[in-house]
């Protein structure tokens, strides 16, 4: 066995509890409130622990450590020694105060980067992995302006809206926090390695999962609860009817945080989840200023996070259309613009009885342009920027799509997808 200095002994005790199979954070918090530090919990009888948190929690807390515990402890200590890495326990003054308002705060947090960002006023910005070009632009703009106002933008490092939120916020003074569903020594998805490195320098990466934990679908709803816990409000940019983002919204509402959603076209599959939660009481927002005003955040300066009071979003009984499915995380891959459009179309078909729209042209250029168009009126200049097509090719492809009935030309040199059915 190791001979450890006091601080390492304490960390070992926290690590043992955090790794105990079947010991839920809410039960652990009850035990800590009753007995103090982890070392005191290990000194109790099973009966004493069971009286506080139940027999299952007592068994889990007092279970002997696994054969590889010393190896895990060595890895944690080595990780903590690396520049920028920190481990914060529930009794540490540096523990994020907003998370203490949760019923089940994690016993251990692995943090890479700026710990101080976890003590600032913060807003979560989340949405679909298969975001549209318009959704990505909206997420980046909201994040950029929120960050410029000194607000920390929190998201989940996923593809689509999450990545856009992190990129936009890195341009401001507020910074960004990525709450991840893997161990803090891993990056998922792999396409975000460079973004994660930038966040670790300019922002913070947070995980409650043991080092080496791979991406698992079941981990992401728990990750979403931390996103909700860290912030005063959650902004949903794009979400299908069954979306992991709606888990975050529901959990945030249960914690008394404010919920906001961006509206979109009634024809856009990724607007349906947003429209649904707006109908249920989430606040419809069109500008970042509306979020700042609603939360009482001034435009400049940074202050300590104060979780907002509960507002009357009436979610009612469990709704099967709101209880989201989290797709197998290990199957996620970066999607092309054409694949995003196809994914959105499949989602639409799954939740609507209306006839499917006509198939887009098979010409790759036309597919790329149609995907870049999204579901909102868009100017020629924006389309040129999104597609990087030459003027002649752009004009020709627009004409082809218009003749095919796929798009409609609007006054003012704007274009939008045609409505079918």
From TrEMBL:
One of its GO terms (biological process) is DNA-mediated transformation. It holds the Pfam family WHD_DprA. Residues 86-295 form the Smf/DprA SLOG domain. Residues 336-354 have a biased composition (Low complexity). It comes from the Bacteria. Residues 328-364 are annotated as: Disordered. Residues 354-413 form the DprA winged helix domain. Belongs to the DprA/Smf family. This is DNA-protecting protein DprA. It comes from Paraburkholderia aromaticivorans.
């Amino acid at each position: 066995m190791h001979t450890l200095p006091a601080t390492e002994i304490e960390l070992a005790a926290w690590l043992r509890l955090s790794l105990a199979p079947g010991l839920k954070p809410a039960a652990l918090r009850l035990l800590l409130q009753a007995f103090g530090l982890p070392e005191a919990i290990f000194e109790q009888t099973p009966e004493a622990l069971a009286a506080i948190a139940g027999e299952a929690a007592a068994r889990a807390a007092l279970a002997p450590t696994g054969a590889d515990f010393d190896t895990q402890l060595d890895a944690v200590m080595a990780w903590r020694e690396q520049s920028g890495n920190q481990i914060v326990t529930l009794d540490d003054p540096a523990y994020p105060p907003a998370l203490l308002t949760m019923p089940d705060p994690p016993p251990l947090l692995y943090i890479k980067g700026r710990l101080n960002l976890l003590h600032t006023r913060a807003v979560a910005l989340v949405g679909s992995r298969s975001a549209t070009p318009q959704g990505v632009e909206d997420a980046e703009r909201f994040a950029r302006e929120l960050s410029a106002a000194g607000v920390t933008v929190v998201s989940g490092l996923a593809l689509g809206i999450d990545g856009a939120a992190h990129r936009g916020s890195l341009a401001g003074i507020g910074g960004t926090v990525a709450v991840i569903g893997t161990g803090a020594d891993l990056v998922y998805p792999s396409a975000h390695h460079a973004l994660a490195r930038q966040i670790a320098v300019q922002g913070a990466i947070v995980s409650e999962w043991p080092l080496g934990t791979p991406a698992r679908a079941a981990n992401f709803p728990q990750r979403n609860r931390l996103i909700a816990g860290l912030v005063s409000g959650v902004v949903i940019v794009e979400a299908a009817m069954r979306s992991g983002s709606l888990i975050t919204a529901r959990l945030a509402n249960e914690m008394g945080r404010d919920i906001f959603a961006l509206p979109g076209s009634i024809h856009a599959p990724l607007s349906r989840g947003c429209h649904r939660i707006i109908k249920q009481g989430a606040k419809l927002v069109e500008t970042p200023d509306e979020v700042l005003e609603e939360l009482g955040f001034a435009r400049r300066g940074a202050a300590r996070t104060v979780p907002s009071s509960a507002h009357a979003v009436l979610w009612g009984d469990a709704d099967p259309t709101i209880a989201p499915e989290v797709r197998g995380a290990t199957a996620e891959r970066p999607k092309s613009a054409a694949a995003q459009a196809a994914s959105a179309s499949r989602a639409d078909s799954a939740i609507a009885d209306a006839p499917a729209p006509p198939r887009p042209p098979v010409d790759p250029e036309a597919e790329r342009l149609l995907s870049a168009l999204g579901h909102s009126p868009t100017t020629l200049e924006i389309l040129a920027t999104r597609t990087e097509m030459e003027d002649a090719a752009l004009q020709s492809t627009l004409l082809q799509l218009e003749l095919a009935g796929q798009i409609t030309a609007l006054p003012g040199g704007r274009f939008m997808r045609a409505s079918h059915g």
